[in-house]
Amino acid sequence: xxxxxxxxxxxxxxxxxxxxxxxxxxxxxxxxxxxxxxxxxxxxxxxxxxxxxxxxxxxxxxxxxxxxxxxxxxxxxxxxxxxxxxxxxxxxxxxxxxxxxxxxxxxxxxxxxxxxxxxxxxxxxxxxxxxxxxxxxxxxxxxxxx
Amino acid sequence: xxxxxxxxxxxxxxxxxxxxxxxxxxxxxxxxxxxxxxxxxxxxxxxxxxxxxxxxxxxxxxxxxxxxxxxxxxxxxxxxxxxxxxxxxxxxxxxxxxxxxxxxxxxxxxxxxxxxxxxxxxxxxxxxxxxxxxxxxxxxxxxxxx
DNA sequence: GCAAAGTTTAGGGTTTACCAAACATTTTTA
DNA sequence: TAAAAATGTTTGGTAAACCCTAAACTTTGC
Lengths: 146, 146
Fold this sequence. Notes:
2 copies of one chain form a homodimer. Chain A is mainly α. The first copy, chain A, has 2 domains: 9-68, Winged helix-like DNA-binding domain superfamily/Winged helix DNA-binding domain (Arc Repressor Mutant, subunit A, Orthogonal Bundle), CATH 1.10.10.10; 85-146, no CATH class. Helices cover 57% and strands 5% of the residues of chain A. Chain A contains 6 helices and 2 strands. Chain A has helices at 9-24, 31-38, 42-54, 70-94, 98-108, 114-123, and strands spanning 58-61, 65-68. In chain A, strands 1-2 form a two-stranded antiparallel ribbon. In chain A, a hairpin with a 3-residue loop joins strand 1 (58-61) and strand 2. In chain A, helix 4 crosses helix 6. Chain A starts with 8 loop residues before the first helix and ends in a 23-residue tail after the last helix. At the A-B interface, helix 4, helix 5 and helix 6 of A face helix 4, helix 5 and helix 6 of B. The first copy, chain A, binds a DNA duplex through helix 2 and helix 3.
């Protein structure tokens, strides 16, 4: 049993941002890029990356940047799954457009339980892409019936 | 234009708890009761009530307790509306039972925008009670069509 | 009117998130 | 290749939201 990971909302945003850079775009996430996209001082980014490194979610190298570890990738995927399932819900049920769905999903994704997300996933027939066509990662606990 | 109110999640929980005591049950919410239901030290409750008083959301009297102000009631109703609309969603869409719906709603109600809640409300035909039969307060911005 | 119950104050503590300024490193370019 | 520019880190702060214990104070109920 590995130690339980507790993520703050902000840390979660870093992980998903890094996942998209690293895995989906094959680009490095530098301090400056993170600072710009979160609109914070670079010093703040360094601090957060160090905290994520302590939690073994990223491998951090001074002056170079940080890469998600295996655990970091797992956590990022969990969050992206939640985010994207919520997008599906908002588009299908409420007829939101993809952009608005993303905005609203961002506000709550971190706080939704995996259970809730799985229930939504089942209701919509286990979709495999979100409204903007990105992959929805699967969860082993989310199967037909459950 | 009145000053914008910014509520922390915890403060929101206090307001809705107090609303239920004060308006729905006509009982006073004492420090001890709040401390017990939130499982914190009474000193912590005092502190939070004082903060809510500064924000003019409650009228606080030392050694007596606190009562929601008009503004406090408005805020509590907004939150209860969000909570109850979410309960409707979870019961109708996901077939959750009332208790589970309440639990999941509690985790995210504070973070959901009024817009999102209104869209859900419209989708379910402006329900006026939640699964446990409590009133769903209306929002003037939530009308047929909108 | 006094003791018990309830409440507040005083004084701390932790965590998350920020920032500016000084300093260190890396990269670019003249 | 050396110096300038860009990038990143450290240091030392700040602030807010929560939370606690212990001591002091107020209210209540007998």
